[in-house]
Amino acid sequence: MFAQQRHQLIIQKINSDKSIRASELMESFGVSFETIRRDLEHLESLGLLQRVHGGAILKEPDYSREIPLPIRESIYLTEKTELSQLAIRYVTEGMSIALDVSTTNTQIAKMLKTKFERLTIITNSLPIVNELIDVPGFTLIMIGGIIRQAEQSIIGDLAEEFASRFHADLFFMSMSGVTLDEGITDNAIGEVQVKKIMQANAKSTIALADSSKFDQVSLLKVCGCADVERFVTDSKIGLDLVDKYKRSGIEIVYE
b vs e for 177-202, b when ≥16 Cβ sit within 10 Å of the residue's Cβ? Predict the structure, then answer.
């Protein structure tokens, strides 16, 4: 098993159980203590867990820095699936939909292919294109430009110029963090510019964020909270936080 595969499975396990023992991982993966120690040190360096004697405990992700794509795919998967189910309520047959690069929007794509027969999808995400490539009634518009291999995304001046040509009915915007003061923020420098263009050109924008991302600030500002129609999240969000945003005129859908 490759290290990346172990890392994903460790994150899935610790998100589920909140803690994990090194001895369990050694037995499960059939590797040495030194290998598990290196795995846990790497995941701790990303801010995803905290090492303790004999294993590790869950730590909230540090959204102030970019987390590698394979690891993000395993974080809050249940919450991303739940909010995706809520988000596609706003989709109707025949719509044009812009999807930026994110594991959340990859979940959205998986649900769209099971619920709709005819959509136009505009994206700069290779995983999303791969997910939808076999849906005969979907028109896929792949934004062209430079491939950022780590994120499997398309970025750069060509991507921005290409994205500016299209005006989607709906843009599902992902993010790394959001606060009332700083607005919607993200870490990926190249992807943020494409995201801004998608938001500016869309008739309507719905911001997607699992509950862990609220009241978190990331590297780059994308737009203000008032620049999107609503936020969609999961049911684990605190009602006091929902009320705080509501008092500022921001709608959060969570059920």
Answer: bbbeeebbbbbbebbbbbbbbbbebb
| Whether the Cβ atoms of residue 67 and residue 61 lie closer than 8 Å to each other | yes
What is the reported pTM?
Answer: 0.79
Task: Give dist(CA 133, CA 87) in Å, integer.
Answer: 21
Q: Is the pLDDT of residue 64 over 70?
A: no
Phi, psi (degrees; rounded to nearest 5) at 251:
-85, 130
74 has pLDDT over 70? no
Give the separation between CA 225 and CA 108, rounded to whole angstroms: 21
Mean pLDDT of 53-64: 78
Chain-centroid distance of CA 197 in Å reads 18
> CA 116, 120, 125, 131 torsion: positive or negative?
positive
